[in-house]
Structures
1.
Amino acid sequence: MSGGVGKRFIVACMALLALTASAYADEFVRPETFTLRNGMQVVVITDRRAPVVTHMVWYRVGAADEPRGHSGIAHFFEHLMFKGTRQIAPGEFSRTIARNGGEDNAFTNWDYTAYFERIARDRLELVMRMEADRMRNLQFSDETFASERDVIVEERRQRIDNNPGSVLGERMRAMLWPHHPYGTPVIGWLHEIQTLDRETALQFYRTWYAPNNAILVVAGDVDAAELRPLAERYYGRLRPTRDLPSRTWVSDPPNVGPIRVTHRDEKVRQPSFSRLYRAISYGTDTGRQAHSLDVAMEILGGSETSRLYRALVEEQRIAVSAGAGGNTSGLGGGSVSVWATPVEGVSLERVEAAADAVIAAFLRDGPTEAELTRAKNSLAANAIYSRDSQESLANIYGASLAQGESIDDVVNWPTDIEAVTREEVMTIARQTLDLDASVTGWLLPEEGQ
Amino acid sequence: MRGGALALALACAPLAPVYAQAQTESAASRHAVPVQQITSPSGIEAWLVSDATVPMIVMRAYWRGGSAIEPANVIGVTSVMTDMLTEGAGAMNANAYKERLQDLNMSVGFSAGWDGVGMSLTTLSENRDAAFEMARLALHEPRFDPEPLARIKRQMLVGLRTRETNPSYIANLALDQALYPNHPYARRTSRAGIEAINRAALEERRAALFNRATLQITIVGDISAEDAGRAVDTIFAALPQGARPPEPPDATLGAPTPLIVRQLPQPQSLVLFVGPGIQDEDPDWIPLAVANYILGGGGFSSRLMDQVREQRGLVYGIGTGPSVREHSAVMRGSAQTENGDVREAIEVTRAEMARLYSEGATQAEVNDAITYLTGSFALDLDSNVKIANVVHGYQAAGRDIGYVNRRNDLIRAVTLADVNRVIRRLFNPADYTFVVVGQPEGLEAAAAN
């Protein structure tokens, strides 16, 4: 009952650990799966504790697939999907879900766009009918398009422009990925959002929104035998897109050296340091490289027992926070980050140097056995607890499949994490934590403040 | 933009068989949670929802007495004390304690609110005895070591600086100070207060708040009644009986003030608005849930979302809801909009409230709200963690054990007359105080501070 915040949020792919985590040395929950004749993959995860279902459609299209000059169109289109079809008037989609006691929303990432409804199991057919309808039959007016553009500009201000830390993060990503589409913000650059047009949006929709480019994930009080006839009736009739474009993206030129960026804003009261490094991802790695990188970053900065927190916050007492994390879920590559916020009176130079010393020691000596075991346990713990939530399970499977992994990859994730060796951790950490492949950001008050 | 009623009916015709369900109840609206009361061997009562589907246990505890009754010279001491409970206990210093939590794949934490303090524990059932022992240690043998205390104080001092440009902090402080200027709810931490917090102050608060007099416990998950009783005794039996802590005075809402503006250099303004509310014991509490859904609580189905976002594109989100502390009750709304649009957003909000206030809601709106509120409740009860949050929330609010399964019946019984009575009582826009944080344009000069 708290004050509402708007719908249609962007899931940053930072959520990786939460999204791909899984069970502690045991296999992860294995769903039922089948594929419709038009190419739409279906995944069913049964949990009968409450008579409700989470119904999601994931499209293998996101901000990274946008035509150049039209940044933000993938996310913009996510909003437009609520604007009606021949059968559903503008705004009626969400109202109908609500009138049936359900909730709906959607989110966009570089790699995917996903739509979901959470509702009583006896309303599943209603949402399948409506979701299938808008996959191919969307229609909206010029006025709707213009009004929604204003909403998205407000969304951008709320998420990015009002927040100096977010503005810096956007600049750092643009430098980390100077050519690759991951350098463009999911919500789009403001000047391009303001010139997006209806025809570009429709072209994007007709190309990518198709059953052979979508994954249906249903979790909750239903099983595959119950779901299959409904899936065939509503989604199975949809026409696939012939010759779906391939999702090959331009790549970046080789790194030529460390990049530094300073962002000043009069709202900043507390300076902070952060750094991004280019990295492999589950979508681009071989063997257990991404698993090993996740373990490495957990040891380096994943918790209050990590190397960075202990050294900078507890022992040297020069920072109030310090940490590191991996963003390794991407289809086309990943990144890792390191950050610290100094205590009053300590400079950014000093916390950055201290963080570099921690990284250097880690790359030289590697983790202890206890650190390695604890990091693997911690990663696996998230996975075990995700079994409590049908929403989490649906998200894990939807995101993983949309980002190029298989069901087996997810099921085996805990045992693969368990198998990570000290040598694998050291190899990937040394390869990744290379200043020449990094962007360092300083967030500072206005000069003279 | 939106079609008229006739067009809508025609457009929806193909879906008629499914729409016919819209005003009927879903199966989920009759979903019940099997809550039982248990009594531990030492005589402590608790609520239990036993379900072995997922091998995990969630426990929540609550004690009356929070930040509003802490000594005025050490504002913030209650939350420092609750944080310090898990910064070393028994023979383990802070690091050893946190490493042990990771090794057990568990979490335990304590937190402070205005009116109470709480504990939250999550564990795998296989580690439960060790997990309960970790909670016992935190509650009964915290070390309150100088190093973690100094660290938390350093972190709070940085927090004092960053909050200076946090729009939400600024707006809420302005409202609390305008509406209850002399009440503890309007107090905030200060440098002098933080510096004065010492070990003796932590011990004093710990002794004052943790006893059996107001203790309320909820346990959910993979545990039998007998084992749950033993767990309760492991953690809580050694608490003294004690007495209820003193209560702060009731915070009487001041008269609405003219528009409050706080300047902050950012492109988008935050708008908060607050008017009189009611406590959750009030007979109008349940009708208020329905009325609020219609005004601004219902996401895309609310009048404010429709008028301010959908019709005009002024905001990404706008919402309202009741906000209740033990000694204050208000209705609260929030929105964020471009500085140049603040005036219009406020005018549209006030106009829509005025229309609802003078004309009342419609029977159709009431029906839709009831169908949503009853049908969606099961969505908040589909995992152990969510069940614990809902059931313990009712317990801490003083509801009886059957309330969670009676709540939907109470909502079903709400009539249009009930809703319109609440609207006349609580939604008069003239009773609301608005605060704007940002660089709003075109607001009356008299309003600027």
Note: The radius of gyration of chain A is 23 Å.
2.
Amino acid sequence: MSRFGAANCGCGQHSSQFICDTAPTDGTAEFGHAVDNAALRAAFPATATRRALLERFGQAGVMAALASVLPLANMRDAFAQAAGTPEKKQLKIGFIAITCATPIIMAHPMGFYARNGLEVEVIRTAGWAVIRDKAINKEYDAAHMLSPMPLAMSLGVGVAQPIPWAVAAIENTNGQAITLAMKHKEKRNPRDWKGFRFAVPFDYSMHNYLLRHYLAENGINPDTDVQIRSVPPPEMVANLRADNIDGFLGPDPFNQRAVFDGVGFIHLLTKELWDGHPCCAFAVPRAMLSEAPNTFAALLRSIVEATAYAAKAENRKEVATAISAQNYLNQPQTVVEQVLTGTYADGLGGVKREPARINFDPFPWQSMAVWMLTQMKRWGQLRSDVDYKAVAEQVFLALDAGNAMKAQGLPVPSEAYRSHQIMGRTFNPAAPAEWTAPNIRG
Amino acid sequence: MNKQVPAWRAALVALGIFVALMALWEAAATSGGGTAAVDPEYAALVGQAAATGGQTPFPRPSAVALRLWELLRDPFYIRGPNDQGIGIQIGYSLLRVTAGFLLAALVAVPFGFLIGMSPLLNAALNPFIQVLRPVSPLAWMPLALYTIKDSAVSAIFVIFICALWPMLLNTAFGVASVRREWLNVARTLEAGTLKTAWRVILPAAAPTILTGMRISIGIAWLVIVAAEMLVGGTGIGYWVWNQWNNLSLADIVIAILLIGVVGLLLDRALGAVARLVAWQE
Amino acid sequence: MSDLHPYVSVEAVTRAYPGHTVFRDLWFGVNRGEFVCLVGHSGCGKTTVLNILAGLDKPDSGGVIVDGVEINGPSLDRAVIFQGHALMPWMTAEANVAFALSCRHKGWSKPQLREAAREALEKVGLGAAANRKPSMLSGGMKQRVGIARALALAPKMLLMDEPFSALDALTRGALQDEVSRLVQEANQTAFMITHDVDEAILLADRILLMTNGPDSHVAEVVQNTLPRPRDRANLHKLPGYHALRDHILEFLLTRSRELRGNPQPGWDRKALPVVRPAA
């Protein structure tokens, strides 16, 4: 029996205790978890008192009582504009040296963290498994993760026990590609790919799910017709060069780096599979929301600011200069530039122009989380039945991110769900079951 | 057979071999570019070799030498946690090796003493030692990472484990083979156990112990490179892995060179200590 | 028997391994200030006797009484000069002697130890070589250091295990004279095992003749009546020397074999027959 199953919660209003513990209490989903927690903490500074109250009356009851004496709506605005002093200023954030991490990285040299009162150390990390382990061991305060990772960790999939982490913001959309070894120049039809060895950055990654979906749509069974290996992104080009793999669906700049070194060519950009798909996430431990709400708010502000800055085409060259240094991506600047500007060599002698090759949009659509969960289910990573929406709402902090975006004057979607166009099919988050069958199309 | 040759002549031959190797390398590395012609816009976006349809070739000795100069000119800079000088990286590795090695010595020498002095302990512990000794120290890494939950300490633990056995076995052997007559002298002098251990057994076994230490430090230096490739973060091993992932082969050649030189220096250092405690009859 | 209360008394000592008896029920004594040599062939168990006296080996039964007290293990009072010099090769000559002295005199300071060690080395003519390590010393010099080390302890008894057997003839002779002089000067009680007849005649007051092993026994005690001081150059001119030498040689050549397991009539292990061939 899954802990996200249909069991009723203690308060009787929600389908599970999981949601009850954390769902907004006014039913309108108007304010984020962080405001809740900040208000609670402000009203009842003593942890013991707070806990006793929560135990006695439940969060809904306490918040309702609070709302009668506190202007919660105003607090929400105040919170969004000028938050209190961060509880913890010195933070360590792990990242993988890929362009997906652009906002996390550039916020450091370009001063976005410092502007929000934080002293952040961004630490380059060897691979996603290491990021996950260091996050679990609390060596990192926050981390650059693949957006499905916090879902898997929170569900206890691929880890010893559930570790609640959350996606505070999406780092980037698009920005990935399928790169094939030079020797496969003529094999552009995926139906010819039986027996190929592919690399993806991690089992719980958009890369894995997109590659599998792409293969399945082309009649290749990703479990039996090809090999898909987890390879840390920095090791992908070296593996391609060493002929350990035939290709990879991986993050940039490694697709472009393969082209730069004459090792591979870009078969297609993932934008062509799903325009606007999410990739990496800015992830925080869920506990940060209650233990250090001001730090969380400051961090989220920094990231949203940086993401907004990176999203502007005219800033891309400057960003490329800032992040290609040895301290961050450690790549030839032209490689990073080609990824960010979208004017790039395809490895086959052509120059392509695709300004939307990578984009930056912090809003964590919960519908995207639902798609990821369907794929976890589809490929056997998720064995039990879970309430996709409940998990998505727990892990993807659309409200908090939306608040931060609003404060920047960015447009915020009115809902956290929408439909997505994926390889010519429409994904409707209200009907996830259509996407959970393997569906290898012959 | 073994006639003395003048040092200058040996040096000359060594230099000749070096030059020949470099020339061969330079010649071999020149190939690799393709012949296809492409438009200049494309060529500007990719590496030199890729522009003509080839793969980035192995770096030439001249390129490696240039890079070496670049790295050694400023070996100790620190620009954030992700970009630190080659000297700092080697420093991290040396620190780990030293820590693991000293810990191993702290355990191996006293235990080696016990095992060497007691045939019973020797026989009882021997099966354990024989089973654990041939295990690759890196095989301990996952276990260390899981239990210690700290990558820095895990790397030191792996060094500890690999440095332990040669010292333990050599100490035990050295202690067990201390001459009966020296022990008899100590007995007739009524020297206590501690005094005998300190003034007689330790100096008598010291050359053997030092041999074990020399083997240990050599293995430790071999293993640290591999261990750092696994745990990452800092150190020359991580640097090698990083540079390989970045296809910076010149850096790898340099790392190989530096690892060799540092290994040599470590061995020489312990060799000097060994000469200090050596004795002749 | 002349000595009713000998300084050192070996009483009923047996040493045996399963299936191999080295000797059984051994009795003899050494008087204070006396120099006793035990002579026998290799394998007769004479080194075992010395080791038991030194406390390095334990008898299976019986015991050794020194100065009225039964010994129980090694003691600084019974200094040993080993067959191989047994110097610690990592210490200088001086440090070797000082090490021994530091065991005897626990409270002494380093300079005190150094000075005493140097003095002891000067007594054996090695003052100039004090700072050399054993590897830089000749065989004779090494054994002199061994002698200095033993004598520096001022032991109640000096035990010597064929101390000169590894040396060339010239050096051996010089050292024998040296030991003879030093032991006489200090009136040192000494017990030495050897298979060199002239050495025994030069040094000993009494010579114990041991039959071949296994299961050896002391066949008789030879009283060396040659006058002192003796020196090697003139030893063979002393009256009675040849008779003494012939007696011992004859024992070593034939009787040591014949008497094994077959004591001569009237032999009493507690009152060994005493002969005076030189008288």
Note: Chain C touches chain B at residues 54-56, 73-76, 78-80, 82, 84, 86, 88-91, 99-100, 103-104, 133-135, 153 (CB under 8 Å).
3.
Amino acid sequence: MSAPAVELRGVSVHFGRTVALRELDLTVGRGEALALLGPSGSGKSTALKAVAGFVRPHTGRVLLSGEDVTDLPPHRRGLGVVVQNYALFPHMRVADNVAFGLRARRMPRRQVEERVSEVLSMVGMADYRRRFPRELSGGQQQRVAIARALAIRPPVLLLDEPLSALDAALREEMLAELLRLRGELPDTALVYVTHDQGEALALADRIAVMRDARLVEVGPTDQLYHRPRTEFTASFLGAANLLPVEVVAAPGDGPATVRLAGAEFRAEPTGGPVAAGARAALGVRPHRVEVRTDGGMPARLLAVQWRGTGFRLDLELDGGTPLRAEVSSVDGLPPVGARVGVSIPDGCPLVTTGAGG
Amino acid sequence: MTAVAASVPAVTRPTRVRRRWASVLWLLPPLVVVLGFFCYPLALVLRQSFVTRSGEVSLAVWQQVVTSPEFTAALGRTVLLSLGATAGCVLLGTFLALVLAFAPFPGARVVSRIVDAVLAFPSFLIALAFTFLYGSAGVLNAALGGQGGGPVDFLYGPWGVLLAEVTFYTPFVMRPVLAAFAQVPSAQLDVAASLGARPALVLWRVALPEAWPALASGACLTLLLTMNEFGIVLFVGAKDVITLPMLVHTKGIVTFDYPAACVVAVVNVLLSVALYAAHRWVFRVLGAGRSGEGRRGAVPNPA
């Protein structure tokens, strides 16, 4: 079995007295796409910089294809890096930007030309090779940045919030472009730093959720979405409502029975075994909450926001628990301030309160 | 539209005249200052350069001065010294800026502030300090004499002037280059390194090109200032180092040959104006190149 493309073993990074990354253990397989997902200051960019060699770990080791590169400078690691603000060299034309890494490697001129044409075609920028970065739009600049990183044919491509500087429409377009590129580069491992769960879900095979310089949870994308083990993952990935419930019955490895506002539900204990009588949090995605005029758990409708494709409802269960719901239509619902009925489906993930943050 | 136009009272001719006179009045004070304190003395110098000692107006003084070996030697020495000092300042200033910007060390901020402080000093102070350090009776020669070593005697020649000018004018290059380096995003340097470029290549191909306009501007300014440098040359007291400003001083103050002094001064002014024009041109060309204006094939940003 071949060594993983990237391996971090107990990597900690300190900036003075600030701990930016705390004992991170993580592997990325060959050809795998891993998203590092978390809010600002969670340590995800620092982890990427540790892989790239831009920061030196205080403790721990960084391995690329099984080789310890902790002490190697960035120029000897052979990785492709794409950053949020593109970091194109403003005094060089597009072709020279893309050729930079190849020339640094002293590749023969003819091969440089061929490779530059190849990667510029790959990202749809072949017609722009004579332009300067300032003559390109944000999306075009990011395509050039990706082409520049791919030109050196890196085994690992590191992307640090590559779409953050783009507007919503361009972001969608570039996301589709990245997905297409992934298909064309099946052997290239991808480490994708983002705070946008949509990007992570669309692009990654696995997601590593980070918070406060720590790894909270890592797992396959669908598993993390449907069966989060922590409150933080449940709320950050999919913006689930975290409803405080009491565990009524917990048979062991099967679904547990929980009580919320007088009603009982069956829930999946995804955060490990729970005991009857314990307090836990039920992760309920807003789109799974059903709101009716009568029946179900009694609640009060506090606010309605139109979101274009649907409506977001802010509710409050009897007892004061806030609840957010997303519905496609508000036809038939009473006005804001009125009492409504709420239904929550069985099978929602149940996580231990306080687990992982 | 017609109604609006009709409701706005037309600007009458007397009002327009009053406004024109008001703008002329505002222009007058600075114009008087510039003409009285700058143009008029220059015009006097220019006029005087064409008047012989006997009071005749002719080109005789010009012919006599410009063809004299003394003048050509001074002109050559001035150009050589200023070019040498500028080259030294560019090398040293760029090196210091690189170190301060990209290899920060404890106390780098203090060093930067000290360099800034040099900008506030008068130039002769450097020459004076050099006399105390490297002069015949300076610290260095006293120390060497105590060890039985021979005297070091470079200060009273072109090399002494060159060293003093490089020391004094280096901040004029370093400061703008340092500011330019500070504008280079660290992400560009990181990405360049990740692409396989060694630190030297990153500096040469990524950081330095970003600083070219600042470097060119600093170099032009230094060339301009060193060409007119007087205090350092005078205070170093190098007998053989006669530059154009020193020649003006000698002709005008020492030998009282005022017309000849005016000729040299006019040449010095013309050189300075030409250099300033070159400085503006370089800055405009580099600036336009970086902003995309005036570049062939440049197209507007589609974003």
Note: Residues 1-6, 292-303 of chain B have pLDDT under 50 and may be disordered.
